[in-house]
Request: fold
Amino acid sequence: MPLFPQKSKAGAAHNQNAPHFTGLAPTASNSVSPNTPPAITKFHGMADSASICPYFGGCEPPDMALATSPTWVFQGVNTSFAVYNTSGAIQAGWPKNSQQFYGVPNPPNNCDPNGPFMSDPRAFYDPNDGRFWTAMLQVEGVVGLNNCPFQTLYWIAVSQTSDPNGTWNVYAFDMSLGTTNAADYTQFGFDAHAIYFNANMLNQAGTAYEYDELFGANKAKMEADQPVIAFGFDKLTANGVLVDTVQPVESETPKNEGPRNGLFVNTFNMNGDGTHDCLNTACSGIVVWSMENPGTRFATLTGIIVSTPQQYIIPPNADDPGCTQCIETIDTRITATPVFSKGTISWSIDTGAKNKTQVVPAILWGQVTPQIVNGHLKGAFLYQSGYFGFEGDQDASFGALMNDNNGNLIMIYDTMSSTLNPSTVYTGRRATFPLGFFHDAGKFLQKGLAPTFDSRWGDYEATSYDGFSTNHIWMASQYSGANFDWATVIGKTQFLLK
Reply:
C-alpha cells in the first residue's frame, strides 16, 4: 500500500526539484541487447482471475513472490501460490489460495463471507539449507475491510524438505503487540541463522502510518517445526524521523561466509530525511541496520546512515497507451527484497527524475557495503549507485536485483509509455563493468499485449537465486495481457564466462 496519498503525486511530473539524469534510450528497450544474457527459460505464471485472487474475484496489484531451486519454481501472486518445474509445467494440486496453503481459519461467525483477508506475498529459497520459505499478511477489522474482530497476523511457512509440493511448517505471529495498529507491506529476508520479517504499521482506519516493526526468529527451530518466539524492535528512527519499510536482506552467501548479524536497509520516504520531505524536495541517503544475536531476547539493533550522491523524490505515475499518468508507481521506499552477496547489499527504489524533456518515473539503484567488526556494525559505505531510466515519457519502475556467485547483477523492471503497453524487461551488468551503470536497457522478458485497465501495477517484483552450483538468476514480473488485465511471466538467465 502506498504511504503517500495519490493526490500528493499530482504535481510530481512537474516538480522542478526532481534530480536530473541522462536517459538511456529514446524508445523502448532493445530486445536484442548484446550484453544482457538471454533468457534460458521463460514461461507464463499466474494471471488475474477469480480463483487466483478469490477474495475480490480478481484484483490488482499483482504483488510478486518467487523462490527457485535447481528443481522447482515457487511463485506467489496476490493471494495464491503455485509450483512449477523448471520447464514451466504447473504441478498437480496447484495453484492454492493463501487460505488453503497456510490453513487459515474463516473469520468467526461469518463476519466476512469472503473469508480471511490476506495480501502481499513474499518468498525465498535458501540455497544453504535447501528449503523454501513464504510469508503473507492477514488483517481483519481494519481499513474498512469488514466488521470482524481486529486481527493482524504475519503468516510464515517453511517447506519440510527441498520439495515445495510436500508438507510445510506454518507459523503465525501477532503484529499488534497490544495495539490496534495493523501491519502492511510484507518484507521478508534470511541469513544462515535467522529469518527476518518486517511491516509498516498503520492505524486501524488505515489512514495514517504509525511506525515500522521488525523481528528475527530462529531459522533452525522453524525448519524443525519447533515452537519459536520472534524478537524485534519498533518505532525506528534515523536523522530524527520515523522511517518506514526497513527491508530485511536475503543473504545469498555460502553459510560460513556471511555475517552472523541480520541486515536491513531503508531509504527515506514517508517522513522525509530530516531535511527534505521526499515529496516536494528531494531526499538522499540510505540507512543500514544490523541486528546482533537475532532470534534471541538478547537481540540488539544498530543503524548507520550512508550518504548517496544521487537524490530521490516521489515519482509521477506512468503513462500507457490508454491513459496519461494513470499507472501507480508507489513512492521512494525499497520495494523488492534487497540481496546480500559478495559483501554488498543490492537495492533499488523508484524516483522521479528529469530527463531531457520531462520528469519521468525512473529507478535509483545501488550497492552498499556494511562493515562488521567482531560482530558489531562499525560503518558502511556506498560501493556504487546510479539512475536507470529513459528519454521521452517511458517509465522504469519496481526494479528487483539479484547477484550471481561472480558478482554479476541482473535487474528486472517494469516499463511502459504512451506508445508501449505495460511490459517487463531485464538488464544486466558484469562485475567488471564501470561502476554505477548497467550495460544497456536490456531485453524484454515479455512485451505488453494491450494497454491495461489496472491503475495499480504491482507493489514489488521478485528475483531468486537457485544456488551456488547452478548459479542461475530467476525473475518474475507482470505485463498487460490481451484482455487488458495483468498476467505474469517467469524467466531464468545466466551470465556465461568471458
